[in-house]
Specification:
Phosphoenolpyruvate Carboxykinase, domain 3, 11 helices, single chain, eight-stranded mixed beta sheet, 17 strands, alpha+beta
């Protein structure tokens, strides 16, 4: 399977007839066809991929000959050759947890690969509303996904949930077709539209089951039972799904210029000034998904081998997004997070798009 991201990065999957491979193929469904030229990144799925050596706490990762390895809670690992990312295959265990693969393999690899091609990855939700690209930026757990789901429910096109790519001339493009949702968001999509409450017991069950799976490895049946319990309990509360499973009538938008950026401000948080938006967007990425830990592990194990940063530094990311947002209309919105607020922000976005279509320079 081959596809491209932002028209710059060709990606190939090999050995996808396995649980992890099928998930990877699902989140790549609907992506752009590969552009002319060789494959930049190859991800190969194999059975029995294990950690290589001791981990560097507190994260389950460590050095390899040409990069690092990362492993999920059951030591199903991926070997990532950061030193030769475009020349060697990334090897992933065929049964790796889907959420772990997405967060700790797919996005870090794509971020490193895209940055080398002049594209940056940013934290946020985005959609194409009547042909106009809109991005929503805010800190984690602020409500970006709920607003995106409301836009998708209204029939608009999907660009990204959690991440999107941006070129320095302001072209936004999808990175994957997955949507990331928790219990309260799933219930929000139900006919009752009740936002629900976060479960307190479920995380405790997951931790206990994962501990049981680790401590009973010598008894395969028992360990597998604990593993299934942990996975089922985890997925019941927080899942990643492909777009078509959640919104069958919604498609993935093509890359295009980012025209509207909506910045959400939680209650009690000062609304950022327009000049501070690039710094906010860079800060939202800086500590996500162990990027710094991955680079530190590689530099620790291979001192002097890395000529340039694997991932963009904060200052470089800030300057990059400042250039990319030139000409983009920016609106900051206080967002308490209720159902009515979700609908209100979606209405504001549609109103702004309608204003753009009428040729208005400024939209209230």
């Amino acid at each position: 399977m081959r596809f491209s991201i932002a028209g710059r990065l060709n990606v190939r999957y090999e050995g996808i007839d396995c649980p992890a491979g099928r998930w990877a193929a699902r989140i790549a469904g609907g992506m752009e066809p590969p552009v002319e030229g060789p494959d930049h990144i190859t991800i190969e799925f194999r059975p029995g991929v294990k950690p290589q050596g001791r981990s560097l706490p507190p994260i389950n990762l460590g050095p390899t000959m040409n990069g690092i390895w990362v492993a999920d809670h059951l030591d199903r690992a991926a070997w990532i050759p950061f030193h030769n990312l475009f020349k060697e295959s990334i090897v992933v265990d065929s049964k790796m947890d889907s959420r772990f693969f997405t967060n700790w393999v797919f996005y870090p690899v794509m971020r490193a690969g895209l940055w080398s091609e002049g594209v940056s990855l940013y934290r946020g939700a985005s959609a194409s509303v009547d042909g106009h690209r809109v991005a929503i930026s805010a800190w984690t757990a602020t409500g970006k996904s709920r607003i995106l789901f409301e836009l998708l429910r209204r029939g608009h096109e999907h660009i990204g949930d959690d991440w999107f790519s941006l070129t320095n001339d302001g072209v936004i493009a999808p990175v994957g077709s997955q949507v990331d949702f928790r219990d309260e968001q799933r219930r929000y999509l139900s006919p009752s539209r009740w936002p629900g409450r976060r479960s307190i017991i479920r995380p405790l069950i997951v931790k206990a089951a994962r501990w049981g799976a680790r401590t009973t490895r010598r008894r395969a049946n028992l360990s597998t039972g604990f593993e299934k319990l942990a996975d089922a309990t985890w997925k019941a509360g927080w899942q990643k799904s492909d777009l078509n499973s959640m919104f069958p009538t919604t498609s993935i938008a093509e890359p295009g210029p980012l025209e509207i950026l909506v910045v959400l401000a939680s209650p009690g948080v000062q609304i950022p000034a327009p000049d501070d938006i690039p710094e906010l967007m860079a800060a939202c990425v800086a500590g996500e998904y162990g990027f710094a830990e991955m680079e530190a592990a590689y530099r620790f194990s291979k001192p002097g081998k890395l000529d340039a940063p694997l991932f963009p530094r904060f200052e470089a990311n800030r300057d990059f997004v400042a250039r990319a947002l030139e000409g983009t209309r920016i609106i900051t919105v206080p967002f308490p997070g209720s159902i009515d607020d979700v609908e209100a922000v979606a209405n504001v976005i549609e109103t702004m798009v309608a204003g753009l279509q009428r040729g208005e320079v400024e939209v209230a």
